[in-house]
Amino acid sequence: MNRRVWALAAVAALCVGVGGTYVAVAALTADGTTSDAKPRLVVDARVASAVAPGSELLVRAVDYGNERLNGRLYRAELAPGAAPSQAGDLACERVHENAAGDGLCLAAKPHGFDYEAVVYGPGQQPRQRFAVPGVPDRARVAPDGRYAGFTTFLSGHTYSAGVRSFETHTAIVDMRAGKSLFDLHELDVTRDGEPFERADANFWGVAFTADGDRFYATLGSGGRHYLIEARVSTRQARVIGEHIECPSPSPDGSRIAYKRRIGKQDRWRLHVLDLASGRDVALAERRSIDDQPEWLGDDTIVYSDDRNVYAVPADGGGRPHRVVARASSPVALR
Fold first, then answer.
1. Can you list the residues of the chain whose pLDDT is less than 50?
2. Whole-angstrom Cα distance, residue 31 to residue 29?
3. Which residues contact residue 231 at a Cβ distance below 8 angstroms, ignoring those fewer than 6 apart?
4. What does pTM read for this prediction?
5. How far apart are CA 174 and CA 287, in angstroms?
6. For 218, phi and psi rounded to 5 degrees?
């Protein structure tokens, strides 16, 4: 989760995939950065052998030396001797794209106080822009590029178990039209066949399956966190699990990587759940990670602590490795 204290708008971002605190002295826009921070690869032969050959990430540069985030995007091949290369001219607070290069960038508007979503195509060429409320927190693009989802925080502090008053805006985006389709509060949600309605419900962490229509997300209510499965086409959802935040389905759809709260603390552990068997494993990363994990192939999870990007085996074994320094918001490209 990325928590930021803004000088003119004291709103903290919540579930964003990280856990550091930064004071923003200058807001980013989609077309400009605040510094010249550049990611640095720290991949050696041992790390490279743990990921699929040719693995590549899209990351956003982080400049934590002067307490400002540099949102310039870089491509990083996870191979010894490789160097990150700038991916385009966009600067994003949060970003995601699919294998075809269709992406969604959440960034500050030119005056620096409000935010916008930038729908872009290959080469990060902007197609459409539209205003989004609140502070950017999450972004995910469906594999087929037709839809995307994003979360912003309208008020509140964190997803902490002791904080009940935060409010999110989580919406599905029509990538072809370049506009928001609906807020997840408009979903018809059921649990065990019965309507599941909660006045304090909040949604966050959208992640799409391979068909592009079905997606998972977190529904939070009363200090409890539920996994929902929904479809864009029907706008219907059902609760299929609990204690699951910021889900991310594996490429074959059989497993869910997610963050799980440790007791009632404001701390999380990354897990992977097998949907068919119910087998759940805690990953080897033992630090509290407040991020929406990303699958790098079938066997590796990547994530950020808001300062660096790490990779860890998805089976609970091994140990985490830092793969890109001074970077956040990792997106698996191949």
1. 1-27, 33-35, 66-69, 157-163
2. 5
3. 213, 214, 215, 237
4. 0.85
5. 36
6. -100, 135
How far, in Å, CA of 219 to CA of 80, rounded?
41
What would the DSSP string read from start to end of 200-246? T-EEEEEEE-TTSSEEEEEEEETTEEEEEEEETTTTEEEEEEES-EE
Residue 206: CB atoms within 10 A of its CB come to 30
How many whole angstroms separate alpha carbon 129 and alpha carbon 304? 27
What Cα–Cα distance (Å) separates residue 128 from each residue in 89, 102, 125, 182? 15, 12, 10, 17
Q: What is the pLDDT of residue 64?
A: 67
272/282 Cα distance (integer angstroms): 7
Note the pLDDT tens digit of each residue in 114-171. Answer: 999 999 999 999 999 999 999 999 999 999 999 999 999 987 544 444 445 678 999 9
Residue 163 neighbours by CB distance under 10 Å: 14
> Counting beta carbons within 10 angstroms of the beta carbon of residue 269, is it exposed (0 to 12), middle (13 to 18) or buried (19 or more)?
middle
- Give the Cβ contact number of residue 128 at 10 Å: 15
Strand, coil or helix: 186? helix
d(C-alpha 92, C-alpha 94), whole Å:
5
Question: Which residue type occupies 69?
Answer: L
Distance CA 302, CA 331 (A): 8
Contact 151, 170 (CB under 8 A): yes
> In which element (H, E) is residue 106 found?
strand 103-108
- Residue ranges making up the domain that contains 104: 3-332
CATH of the domain at 136: 2.120.10.30
Provide the 3-class DSSP secondary structure of residue 151: strand
Count structural domains, the chain: 1
Amino acid at 309: V
